[in-house]
């Protein structure tokens, strides 16, 4: 089923940056002949306005370095904030000052992701800028002082992986509770990226480091979708030891997520280059551009060994891997095997991974509920997307939900599945007041996961269970 727009959108305001990371995920910055472009103020404002008009519900201004665009960053944030969008920022943190922090608070910024790729000299070497670590560390702490949720992000490459644990320990000592780690993903066409690739021994160290930091109390998450078959391919004898470390992430690019380049072009994935088959101009035709980006999620792009009937039992929680890594593996083709793949898994071997998609939640029948005020809903015609911005979590209900989920209306929910899904995304809360109950309005159904994500959720169809699939970009889909 087609959707109106992404739920979550990355808005690249510029491709200029005050760091010079040779491993940068931005495909433009990794190409030798690249000339940095900055989306001008008028274009960025028009993209923001078009996005809120289409119903985008959460936005992350990024770059390059978004703070380099100056004052119109705050205008952009104002447009999204006034439309009720959850706003985050992806930054290296070097340009944050007390004055900038105050303005970001006024603009309603909810959270920020800060790049931190080592301590001291290692970070400076990785980002190609002397003194960058001190400025980034100051930025991290300034965001925290201003009450903006801040998460450090470490991109793990062959050149800095040895510094991962020391970064985590430094964060723990400074009072930080969370961080994310992104395994390096190369951009097709970039000659500089090959030397940063992670090999088998790197992955062993990667998994062990994350496990060690978790045991010290740090909530550390790995963001790239790593198919279960990779774990078994690399560690056939002891893969169960690392099961807790491999985050059950999937790619939802082209479905719940999209990105707009500085020149207003849609891309499905922030790490993939602009490909006309999978995008278009937001300002010329937002709808058609987003529909083109949807093709990035098409089942037809998957390797035959993943998608053929009864081939791989883990496909429901994997989705056939990352299409951007497929570009690298297949010289620019988005169809086929990815650089991180093993062999199809039997149901017996896939079961521990499938079990992790089940979400356990308590539900007490007979309670009265009401919709939480921060919840966003968007009618797609064929169904209703219910989104909790604070948790970056959503569910998709049948069309009856538009008349059922009315702010202030009291709800008696007879379906345990519906109640559990709405409780899982914290869309509803208990209400002692039973006034206003209207039994005449039809109760919506939770739509099966395969409707929203056709290449995923195959086999996750137990109507008594609640499932959760988490995207590499952070959002969580409950069904």
Number of helices: 15
Task: Give the full name of the CATH homologous superfamily of the largest domain.
Answer: Aldolase class I
Query: What does the overall shape look like?
Result: globular
- Subunit arrangement of the protein: single chain
Q: Output the CATH class name of the largest domain.
A: Alpha Beta
- Helix coverage percent: 25-40%
Main sheet record:
10 strands, mixed
Secondary-structure blueprint:
Elements: E1 8-12, H1 41-54, E2 58-62, H2 72-82, E3 86-91, H3 98-106, E4 111-115, H4 121-127, H5 132-145, E5 149-156, H6 164-173, E6 178-183, H7 200-215, E7 219-222, H8 228-234, E8 249-250, E9 257-260, E10 265-267, E11 280-281, H9 286-294, H10 304-307, H11 323-329, H12 347-355, E12 368-371, E13 376-379, E14 384-388, E15 393-397, H13 401-404, E16 410-412, H14 416-424, E17 428-430, H15 449-452, E18 468-471, E19 476-478
Parallel strand pairs: 1-2, 1-9, 2-3, 3-4, 4-5, 5-6, 6-7, 8-18, 15-19
Antiparallel strand pairs: 9-10, 10-11, 12-16, 12-17, 13-14, 14-15, 18-19
């Amino acid at each position: 089923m087609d959707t109106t727009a992404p739920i979550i959108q990355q808005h690249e305001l510029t491709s200029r940056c005050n760091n010079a990371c040779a491993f940068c995920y931005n495909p433009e910055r990794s190409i030798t002949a690249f000339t940095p472009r900055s989306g001008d103020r008028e274009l960025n404002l028009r993209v923001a306005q078009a996005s809120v008009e289409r119903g985008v519900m959460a936005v992350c201004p990024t770059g390059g370095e978004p703070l380099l665009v100056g004052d119109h960053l705050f205008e952009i944030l104002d447009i999204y904030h006034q439309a009720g969008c959850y706003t985050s920022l992806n930054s290296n943190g070097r340009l944050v000052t007390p004055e900038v922090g105050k303005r970001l608070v006024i603009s309603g910024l909810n959270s920020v992701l800060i790049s931190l790729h080592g301590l001291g000299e290692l970070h400076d070497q990785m980002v190609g800028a002397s003194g960058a670590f001190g400025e980034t560390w100051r930025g991290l702490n300034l965001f925290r002082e201003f009450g903006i949720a801040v998460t450090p992000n470490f991109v793990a490459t062959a050149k800095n992986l040895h510094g991962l644990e020391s970064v985590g320990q430094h964060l723990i000592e400074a009072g930080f509770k969370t961080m994310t780690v992104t395994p390096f993903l190369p951009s097709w066409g970039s000659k500089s990226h090959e030397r940063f690739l992670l090999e088998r021994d790197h992955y062993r160290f990667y998994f062990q480091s994350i496990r060690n930091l978790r045991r010290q109390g740090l909530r550390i998450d790995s963001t790239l979708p790593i198919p279960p078959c990779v774990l078994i391919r690399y560690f056939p004898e002891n893969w169960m030891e690392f099961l807790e470390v491999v985050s059950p992430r999937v790619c939802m690019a082209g479905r719940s997520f999209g990105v707009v380049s500085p020149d207003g072009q849609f891309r499905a994935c922030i790490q993939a280059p602009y490909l006309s088959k999978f995008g278009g101009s937001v300002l010329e035709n937002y709808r058609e551009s987003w529909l083109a980006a949807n093709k990035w999620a098409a089942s037809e792009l998957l390797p035959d060994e993943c998608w053929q009937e009864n081939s791989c039992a883990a496909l429901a929680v994997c989705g056939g891997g990352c299409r951007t890594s497929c570009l690298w593996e297949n010289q620019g083709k988005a169809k086929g095997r990815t650089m991180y793949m093993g062999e199809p898994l039997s149901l017996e071997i896939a079961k521990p991974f499938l079990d992790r998609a089940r979400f356990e939640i308590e539900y007490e029948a007979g309670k009265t509920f009401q919709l939480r005020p921060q919840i966003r809903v968007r009618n797609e015609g064929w169904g209703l997307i219910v989104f909790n911005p604070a948790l970056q979590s959503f569910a998709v209900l049948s069309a009856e939900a538009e008349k059922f989920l009315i702010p202030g209306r009291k709800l008696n929910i007879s379906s345990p599945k519906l109640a559990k899904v709405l409780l899982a995304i914290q869309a509803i809360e208990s209400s002692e007041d039973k006034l206003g109950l209207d039994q005449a309005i039809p109760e919506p159904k939770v739509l099966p996961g395969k409707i929203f994500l056709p290449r995923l959720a195959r086999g996750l169809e137990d109507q008594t269970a609640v499932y959760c699939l988490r995207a590499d970009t952070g959002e969580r889909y409950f069904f």
